[in-house]
Amino acid sequence: MNHSVEFILPVLNEEKVLAPSVSTIYNFLDTHFKDYNWQITIADNGSTDKTAAISEALSTKFDRVEHLRIAKKGRGRALKQCWISSESDVVAYMDIDLSTQLDDIRPLLDSITKNNYDLAIGSRLIKGSVVEGRSRKREFTSRTYNKIIQLIFSVNFNDAQCGFKAISRSAANQIVPLVQDNGWFFDTELLIIADQCEFRIKEIPVRWTDDPDTRVKVISTAIYDLCGLARLKFGGLQLAKSKLK
User: Fold this and answer.
1) How many structural domains compose the chain?
2) pLDDT interval class at 214 (50, 70, 90)
3) Secondary structure (DSSP) of 206-242
4) Residue 166 belongs to a domain with what CATH number?
5) Can you give the pTM of this predicted structure?
6) Could you give the CA distance from residue 14 to residue 134 in angstroms, rounded to a whole number?
7) Backbone phi and psi for residue 62, each to the nearest 5 degrees, phi listed first
8) Are 106 and 112 in contact, with CB atoms under 8 Å apart?
9) What is the tens place of the pLDDT at every residue in 71-82?
């Protein structure tokens, strides 16, 4: 029996890239993933441009594309809602700008369905990864942030923020409800809880092309994330672990 997988594409005001990116992903999966029962869900995360209309049109055009409107912003909020409500064996997400090469989807999914990992995550910071177009500022900030995570929590992963992740249904049901953050810190909190509760995490080296049009504000996001780390360090992680027992 083929495993089922649901790909979540969280989007906010992505009218320019939504249609071509979804078409590219759909055609790739249709060609190379006949051994999976897959579907794509566009999580329209409070967009104010034409994203909603384009998403609706794509769900009509493609039989395995769904559109979900989420009124409030926050990537973490979108992933929580979609992952918890999904009935697929594996739930995954990737950035709509297609920064990660689509060929990396295969090792991501197979790590869970064939090698019994609980989570699989893309990494730009391990041997075998290839990163293009990234500024020195973003590279330094990313490496420093992940070193801080390792220093505080002694985790066994290297890249918390790569927008390319998958998680098994069982692990999602257990971990996702414990994650408090609804924004960019969602990924980090998810992984720290998973790691500290001894879920199996597989890091996949990815080929990554940085999006020059990204709207992520490096400094403000870094400060927000550091506040999240402090929350976990001073009680948040222990609370999550106590609820998982």
Assistant:
1) 1
2) low
3) -EEE--TT----HHHHHHHHHHHHHHIIIIIHHHHHH
4) 3.90.550.10
5) 0.95
6) 21
7) -110, 130
8) no
9) 889 999 999 999
